[in-house]
# Entry
Amino acid sequence: MKLRRRHFLALGAASAGGVLLSRWAIGQKQISPSAILTERYRNALAYKSQDGLLEMNLEAGNAVVRLGDRQAHLLSYNGQVPAPRLEAKPGDTVRIHFRNKLSEPTNLHYHGLHVTPTGKGDNAFLSIPPNERLTYEFKIPTNHPAGTFWYHPHHHGHVAEQVFGGLAGLFIVRGDLDEIPEVKAAREQFLVLQDFALNADGRIEPPNHMAMMMGREGSLVTANGQVNPTLAIASGGLLRLRLLNASPSRFYRLALEDHPLYLIASDGGAIAQPVELRELLLTPGERAEVLVKGDRPAGQYRLLNLPYDRGGMGMMGNEGMMPGMGGMRHNQGSQSPQPLATLTYRESTTSLPLPKKLMAVESLPKPGNTRRIELSMAMAMGTGMVFLFNGQTFDPQRIDASVSLGTVEDWELVNADPDRMDHPFHLHINPFQVISRNGQPEPYPAWKDTVLVKGGETVRIRVPFRDFTGKTVYHCHVLDHEDLGMMGTLEIGTRSGRPS
# Structure
């Protein structure tokens, strides 16, 4: 296969010491997506925009990869788990030649990007059948914030299965945050957190009914497709960790032994100044960027996933309880802390301070409208448990919320789940700010696209609707709950009601 010039320009340089591998870029010695790829290749591959264009081929299919000491049969993009990292800048055009080699329909969602939801952009309503192709093309706005975003499938009814199979990759937008001197000087590391449930043959274990109700989790927890990889930090230096929770249901409660984490960016980009944290909770779909100071004695320190109880299912109490299931809770409280990665010091003559200021976070005007969205679950005849927004399961033909471009709304998210299960709420296309939890203001402003609504909580978010009209969706990011009905359709129109 000949390599066209624009494909060559789309191939970014690998990270230091790595090897850039692409089945479209190595001539006759092509690597099939079904090949077994080493950790070195999995961690090295990145596609970066050149001359205002990010263009690449992307294939969803089956792959055999190594997870820790196990050979696993997974779903993958371009044979990699996690998928290749994509990097672009504000103002760039993104053109992805996508091919579906799965046995079921799929599509792509560019999680967190503020781009068009229509046509061949971030369109959650597209369906790409098996063995079909589609070229996605959209432009990143020139004022788009720098940040850590990601891409994954979003075909309703198949989302949890496909993400749990391994389909997820980072999408980085470079910009002003990357040019802050202390941030620029820090060593950058990407950590994609995924969990898997493998049977004895290394294949994904199909979930039972209870796993789907709770949201499936796997006992094999990985960072960049590895089990407890080693990260380096320079004595006196800074390590910038870009963290992504790409698991469909698992929550990660992160802590680094003997080190605070300094939060510098959330889902939607930078915050105003670093915030010191002892723990960081990442729910499914959330991202965070933190700095770690290399100011401890030389040695090894573990990045731990601490126990977390994300709520339970008493199956609506004793009444209506599903036969043979009993009252159950999803309680991780008895588990021990689990190492995700190990931080190792190396000698250095450099000493780097933390940045004092980052990026200003815009103050939003008061809302013109407030709407209430109630999150709950119920029993459905013949199908078991379903998950609901305002008492309804998802219907792609129904519009659940209509807003006008150029307006600002407050959305009151009320978790009325009778079993007090946590639900992370995600809104496509339109970033928001969290205003309050149970009436208490948030401690610092930040742009988000995914927010945790704990059992019994009421969370108020403020959403500006800017730039793009059309239909998009909002949903619970415990992906089984989305597939089981907890999703709604949002239509954004012009003030006149006419299409823009």
Helices lie at 5-9, 39-44, 159-164, 176-179, 181-185, 209-214, 479-483.
